[in-house]
Amino acid sequence: MGLRSEINRDVITAIPDEFKKPSIGPIEIWPPVVLAPMAGVTNAPFRKLCRKFGAGLYVSEMITARGLLEGHSKTERLSGFAEGETPRSIQLYGTEPKSIAAATAMLVGEGRVDHIDMNFGCPMPKVTRRGGGAALPLKPKLFESIVSSVVKAAGSVPVTVKFRKGTDEDHLTYFEAGLIAESVGASALALHARTAEQLYSGQADWDAIARLKETIVSIPVFGNGDIWEPWDALRMMRSTGCDGVVVGRGCLGRPWLFGQLASVFGSDPSSGGSEPDNPPLLGGVADTMIQHAQMLVDWTGPHGIRDFRKHTSWYLKGYQTGPAARRSLQMVEDMDNLKELLSDLLSTIGADREFDPSALRLPRSHRNGPKPVVLPAGWLDDPSDLTPLHIEAEALVSGG
């Protein structure tokens, strides 16, 4: 038996015919795993790297409708795909129906996408205070108008909707949001089973995923939250009945998690799963870090190495490397510097350094919260109000 935490001690690999292959419109997904859109992370190089380890659906970071329509240079870059990338999935953000429908029509008309995901789960204050992200489902009529406009503009391209339980425990919106999205033609739903107030703290409420799945019967429901090990995906699907999982922070610094997920699910729903490989030795991690960094530099130019700095601590989490090495890597200057620092690290502590099993469930990236949600003034006064905020509410740079 490979590495696994106590919570997953008795979980077995997938049983033949236990799960069905979910479809998002014409797109069949196996294993039933989706990469969560993450700002500053799920760009084309990271998606390409993850796909090398295992199949699934890999979605871009958040792209703003206004940024696309206005030809914003960063938005254009972030909405690009690697050569041969398929299916091409974009997460689209908007706060009113007209511009997001126009952006959808542009993407579809130019043949740039195979799948559009809509962001109604972002809890960040700079988004919610403008009536976007997790704040928008509090206005169900406006939410319906926006989702409906995108579904219509997308035509045959499937549209999915991702949201949280609500803004807080007193304002749970996921049931109504799910039913609305289903009724206007969304192809699938994804629930991050936390409130916006929780941010990334505490445990995800998998029971909420089960309740949503019991309610939504005509389209797939994907669960998101606390998928740290491949076994978590099996446990979530068995305990909630959901059709697949969305993986976010658990894959940061661990793109091989998608290979482990492919193992436990098997090559198809009828084959059954197998024991996944253990995390790589430190030497293998270093090789992947160099590959990832080079892909970023090739994609964005020399400054891509700065984008890679935040990844270094995620890659090394669980390996006893010492704080000095971590600090040096977080200030890496270029590819030669990265290779030199990693070579020094391996020569000092050994390329055969193993992953510490106690780190399997250590959070990566965000772990802040809870924190009250910032909403626009009067946002809760009239839930039936269809009026979006001023168009400047969408003037956010893509990627968060």
- Per DSSP E runs of 2 or more residues, the count of β-strands stands at 12
Q: What is the 3D form?
A: globular
Widest sheet: strand ordering: 3-4-5-6-7-10-11-12
Structural class: alpha/beta
How would a textbook summarize the main sheet?
8 strands, parallel, barrel
- In the CATH hierarchy, what is the architecture of the largest domain at level 2? Alpha-Beta Barrel
* Tally of distinct domains: 2
Gap from first CA to last CA: 40 Å
Helix count from the secondary structure assignment: 14
Could you tell me the radius of gyration in angstroms?
A: 21 Å
Strand content: 5-15%
Uncertain residue ranges = none
What's the mean pLDDT score? 95
Q: Return the CATH topology of the largest domain.
A: TIM Barrel
The portion of residues assigned to helices is 25-40%
> H/E series, N to C?
EEEHEHHEHEHHEEEHEHEHEHHHHH
The CATH class of the largest domain turns out to be Alpha Beta
How would you characterize the overall build of this protein?
The protein has 400 residues and is of the alpha/beta class. It folds into 2 domains: 22-278, TIM Barrel; 282-354. It is 37% helix and 12% strand. It contains 14 helices and 12 strands. The strands form 3 sheets. The chain has an 8-stranded parallel β-barrel with strand order 3-4-5-6-7-10-11-12, surrounded by 5 helices. Strand 10, helix 8 (206-215) and strand 11 (221-224) form a beta-alpha-beta unit.
